[in-house]
Design goal:
It contains two helices and two strands. The chain is mostly helical. It has a domain of 53 residues. A two-stranded antiparallel ribbon has the order 1-2.
């Protein structure tokens, strides 16, 4: 007794050896952009938006300070802002003055 794929609910299966179109790349949802290493190395950044060190904190760039409650995150953030405004180093990193 022979069983067909349609009996299992499987339809439109291409035959072996049949020519198929190349799969189209899928665009990721949201703002995620995938770049090749060469594209990343060729990127040119404007250094006027850097606030802390080599792009640890830059204009429009998110920064997360995470720790358990009471560890001093708020105090650290306030000291960071004071260092940026005054143009002083912050924990050994150069800061830049905002415009």
């Amino acid at each position: 007794m022979s069983t067909t794929l349609e009996e299992y609910g499987i339809r439109d299966v291409p035959e072996i050896g049949a020519e198929q179109a190349a799969p189209q790349p899928v665009t990721p949802p949201g703002r995620l952009t995938l770049r090749k290493p060469d594209e990343i190395l060729a990127m040119v950044f404007d250094d006027s938006d850097i606030y802390l060190a080599e792009r640890l904190l830059a204009d429009g760039q998110p920064l997360v300070i995470a720790a358990q409650g009471g560890a001093g995150k708020s105090r650290l953030a306030l000291q960071l802002v004071a260092a940026i405004i005054s143009g002083r180093d912050f924990i050994g990193f150069q800061t830049g003055k905002p415009k």
